[in-house]
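Per your request, structure below.
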């Protein structure tokens, strides 16, 4: 009793405090309930109607913006297909081209179709149909249309529509009756065309609403008499997904229809209910032709309907979007009902809620602490809560988020140089041609470049003499050497220029973009920097540098042309010189007055050595040939042309000796491989390794073919007659050869001696008899052509154990 009386004042204070909270809460609920009733009724009667009208207006504005995106996607498809249709590779040259003989052109067409297919996410497939010289279809490969029905189906694309048109007809579909996307001058096929196609064995067809859209462009693009067509089929699921973007909610209906009111694409599944909804919606659209947006009621639901027109090449399509207003008004209706119910119920539940208020008052803070506490067990949470109050915990979480943000910003700053270099590399290589000058300047400004009042200068560098450093670097260290050279370029350039961007091509070449004030003489500074760079690289990594300096420009869009001009001019550098600094504006750097005589006598020595299968003499003649063509005054372009001529003469000699270069080289384009090599020493090594050696090995293989057949016959004879007396003399008599010649050929072709091979065959047969039969050891020896004593000795020598031990181990 003493203990209870001791805590009585605290308990009574807590009880009075709870009553105060309950009474205060009851008063608050009574005051709040009356405005809640009034507010709930007003919201239900007035706000819902105004929200419907406001949502209808917002829906119209939103759908127009999204429809422009859909229209841009389809317009981009039309423009992209027209671009490809006017490509020279799809011109009149395809009429009489032998696609089987000209395999590279056929592969190029297939590759182009792959590129066209991947150029837009809506494209499911890209096909090329050619009527002449015979029906041919290119899709994933080359196909000749031998099926007359299928050929007639693709032929219909040439008779339908304008030069460019949309349709939803596919060859090979077997449904009811054909109904095209009738637009422009093509409102379906005329009677003569229907009759001709029916006679070809193809029935009229009809495509359902689930059929994909097809964009057709007849080729050649500039011809009025097309003989083929580029056919792009859209992915119907992705097209439907794109159309779904016209509706801000998953509920509702979106579809696309033509001028006749037929549905082309629907953004939702075509159930029976949605079909009836779509039919009634089209009737309502006909009644509201004067407005682009209206409210439509269907099955106790109100929909906001917006529609508009998409102008295509040969037609005008109508998009329709119907979004249910219940998605917006339902929460408001529910909220108003809840407010009315809560206000009325608060008068009754006030006493009950006040009883639990003191215990529930802390529940929001408890949930917040539960979310912010980064530990799992309850004991750890209680420990952390005891150490930190709510505000300290929030402060701790804020510091943690700030630290993460600073870390992300630091990582972004570390990656910024790589982003700058990558963007400049794409810019100078011409990958940014679709951007305007203003867009390019804006993107470079975001990457930290200052372009206002600046001029641009592009420098390209080729590092030569690498093959002379094989003692210092391996054959696979080109990327490492280029990386070291790029670092030297950046270090030296920082002392001359404020803004630079160095690109590493990883193939002993690089480029640098210089951004300097327009008032400075950047060309003079660049030449001074080039002289220092040549000296530093020669002293550090002992390479020679061919440095090309372009003319200063002010527009970013001129840089790709500058790079192409420098790459072309690089072929005219003199190969016998060391490091060179070439200014594109200085014509003296590229003037070559000396003629280029071709060493025909050395070429004959090379060909004669190859005919006689003398590799060393061919290499010596090639070395003399290279020394002659790289003499004083010769340019890189001249050296490459002479080497290409030598390659052609060698291949002609191969054909004369019965060797087909195409088969021997595995179908590789040797001219293309040789044309990309710049250094003479590397050209010489390539000619020996890739041309001379394969040819000599082919001749040696052909000379050994008769001996190979003799050895194979001898080996078959041994395998058939090993139980009897098989000797080298007997086999030599059978092949009408001397024993010495047969023994030498046997060793050369099979890699083992004649006696060793006979022993190997007999041992394999003996081991099989020991494993699979119960014959005595004497009988096994006789069965494989050995006497008993000799058999045991030779078996143990070959296998390491006796025949009896071998049988015991096996079982």
């Amino acid at each position: 009793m003493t203990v209870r009386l001791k805590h009585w004042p605290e308990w009574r204070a807590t009880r009075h405090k709870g009553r105060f909270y309950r009474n205060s809460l009851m008063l608050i609920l009574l005051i709040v309930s009356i405005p809640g009733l009034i507010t709930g009724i007003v919201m239900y009667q007035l706000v819902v109607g105004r929200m419907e009208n406001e949502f209808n207006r917002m829906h119209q504005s939103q759908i127009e913006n999204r429809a422009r995106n859909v229209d841009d996607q389809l317009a981009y498809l039309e423009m992209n297909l027209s671009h490809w249709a006017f490509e020279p590779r799809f011109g009149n040259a395809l009429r009489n081209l032998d696609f089987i003989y000209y395999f590279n052109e056929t592969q190029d067409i297939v590759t182009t179709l792959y590129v066209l297919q991947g150029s837009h996410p809506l494209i499911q497939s890209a096909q090329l149909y050619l009527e002449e010289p015979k029906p041919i279809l290119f899709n994933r490969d080359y196909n000749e249309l031998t099926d007359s029905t299928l050929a007639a189906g693709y032929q219909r694309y040439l008779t339908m529509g304008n030069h460019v048109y949309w349709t939803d007809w596919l060859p090979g579909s077997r449904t009811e009756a054909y109904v095209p996307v009738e637009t422009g001058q093509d409102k379906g096929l005329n009677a003569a065309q229907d009759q001709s196609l029916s006679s070809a064995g193809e029935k009229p067809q009809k495509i359902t609403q689930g059929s994909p859209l097809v964009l057709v462009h007849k080729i050649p693009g500039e011809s009025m008499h097309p003989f083929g067509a580029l056919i792009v089929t859209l992915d119907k699921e992705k097209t439907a997904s794109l159309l779904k973007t016209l509706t801000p909610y998953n509920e509702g209906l979106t579809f696309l229809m033509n001028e006749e009111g037929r549905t082309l694409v629907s953004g939702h599944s075509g159930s029976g209910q949605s079909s009836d909804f779509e039919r009634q919606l089209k009737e309502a659209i006909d009644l509201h032709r004067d407005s682009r947006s209206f409210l439509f009621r269907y099955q106790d639901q109100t929909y906001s309907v917006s529609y508009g027109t998409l102008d295509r090449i040969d037609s005008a399509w109508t998009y329709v979007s119907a979004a249910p207003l219940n998605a917006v008004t339902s929460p408001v209706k529910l909220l108003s009902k809840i407010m009315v119910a809560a206000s009325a119920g608060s008068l009754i539940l006030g006493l009950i809620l006040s009883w639990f208020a003191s215990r529930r008052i802390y529940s929001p803070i408890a949930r917040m602490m539960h979310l912010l506490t980064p530990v799992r067990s309850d004991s750890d949470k209680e420990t952390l809560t005891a150490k930190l109050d709510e505000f300290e915990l929030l402060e701790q979480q804020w510091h943690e988020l700030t630290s993460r943000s600073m870390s992300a910003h630091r990582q972004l700053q570390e990656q910024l140089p790589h982003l700058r270099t990558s963007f400049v590399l794409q810019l100078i290589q011409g990958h940014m041609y679709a951007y305007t000058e203003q867009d390019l300047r804006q993107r470079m400004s975001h990457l930290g470049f200052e372009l206002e009042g600046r001029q641009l200068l592009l420098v390209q560098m080729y590092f030569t003499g690498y093959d002379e450093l094989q003692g210092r670097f391996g054959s696979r260290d080109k990327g490492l050497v280029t990386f070291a050279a790029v670092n030297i370029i950046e270090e030296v350039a920082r002392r001359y220029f404020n803004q630079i961007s160095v690109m590493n091509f990883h193939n002993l070449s690089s480029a640098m973009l210089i951004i300097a004030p327009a008032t400075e003489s950047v060309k003079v500074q660049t030449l001074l920097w080039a002289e220092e760079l040549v000296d530093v690289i020669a002293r550090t990594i002992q390479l020679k540098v061919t440095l090309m300096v372009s003319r200063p420009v002010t527009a970013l869009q001129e840089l790709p042309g500058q790079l192409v001009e420098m790459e072309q001019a690089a072929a005219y550098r003199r190969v016998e010189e060391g490091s060179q600094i070439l200014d594109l504006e200085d014509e003296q750097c590229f003037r070559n007055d000396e003629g280029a005589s071709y060493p025909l006598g050395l070429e004959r020595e090379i060909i004669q050595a190859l005919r006689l299968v003398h590799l060393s003499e061919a290499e010596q003649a090639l070395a003399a040939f290279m020394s002659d063509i790289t003499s004083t005054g010769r340019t890189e372009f001249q050296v490459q042309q002479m080497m290409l001529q030598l390659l052609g003469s060698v291949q002609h000699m191969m054909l004369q000796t019965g060797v087909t270069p195409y088969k021997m080289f595995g179908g590789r384009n040797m001219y293309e491989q040789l044309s990309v090599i710049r250094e003479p020493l590397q050209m010489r090594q390539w000619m020996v390794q890739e041309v001379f050696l394969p040819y000599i090995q082919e001749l040696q293989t052909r000379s050994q073919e008769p001996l190979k057949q003799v050895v194979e016959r001898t080996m078959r004879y041994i395998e058939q007659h090993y139980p009897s007396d098989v000797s080298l003399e007997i086999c030599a008599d059978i092949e009408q050869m001397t024993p010495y010649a047969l023994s030498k050929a046997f060793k050369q072709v099979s890699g083992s001696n004649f006696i060793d091979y006979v022993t190997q065959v007999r041992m394999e047969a003996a081991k099989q008899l020991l494993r699979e039969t119960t014959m005595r050891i004497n009988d096994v020896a006789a069965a494989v052509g050995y006497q008993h004593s000799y058999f045991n000795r030779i078996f143990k020598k070959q296998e390491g154990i006796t025949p009896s031990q071998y049988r015991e181990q096996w079982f």
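DSSP finds 28 helices and 16 strands in the chain.

Regards,
D.
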